[in-house]
Every structure is written in C-alpha cells, then in structure tokens.
Known about the structure:
Blueprint: E1 3-7, H1 13-25, E2 30-33, E3 44-47, H2 53-80, H3 87-93, H4 95-122
Antiparallel strand pairs: 1-3, 2-3
Amino acid sequence: MAALLFRLRNVPEDEAEDIRALLKQHHIANYETSAGNWGISMPGIWAENDDDLPRAKELINEYQQQRAISARTNYEADRREGRAPGLVDSIKRRPLVTLGIFLFCLFVVYAMVAPFVRLALIS
Length: 123
C-alpha cells in the first residue's frame, strides 16, 4: 500500500526537484499526486512500497536538515553584508500594502476598545 512521503503544497520547485532526485538516486519507487483541477487535493510524493518508507523518511529528513542549515548560513551572510531585506525595505517595496495593513490593525483595535470606552462614558 502506498504511503505519503512528502507533501508538495507550498514547497519551492527546487526543493521538490531535489526530493525527486534523492528518491531516484536511492532507487525508492514513488509517484506523485497533484493538487487537482481546483487545487483542493493534496499534492504529494508517495512511496509505492511500505518497506521503503522508513529509509525514504530518513533521507528526506537529512536533506531538509542540510537545506535548513544552508538557508540559515546564506541568510546570515546576507545579513552581515547588508543584503537581507529589513522592515524599512519591506515598507519601501510595498507602501500601499503596508498602509492597508496598518489601517486594518487600527480598525481592529478601535472595534475592540470602542464598546468599553462607550460603556465607561455612559456610567
């Protein structure tokens, strides 16, 4: 019976390709399912044989640990060299979105506090 190895929803294409290559390199029989026409199904990579499942999970876990270390190293290097985007860079890149989020937050605070302020004024 098939077993789910790796969920593909919100996974970068390069990571999915690396997982496919890793499974192929270690001769683990697998197949893929897509999200379907409406994108509501669960895309994933499945092991065809249950006996391969522990080995495949171990390989994927090792790969993801190495990928996390590599990503953290790259981020730290970018941050040291001033290439990592900060809050000000994000605001400059999308000022209208930032303003919209800020105004929405103010509205939520107002909606939460206004009843209590009115109640205090009435009393």
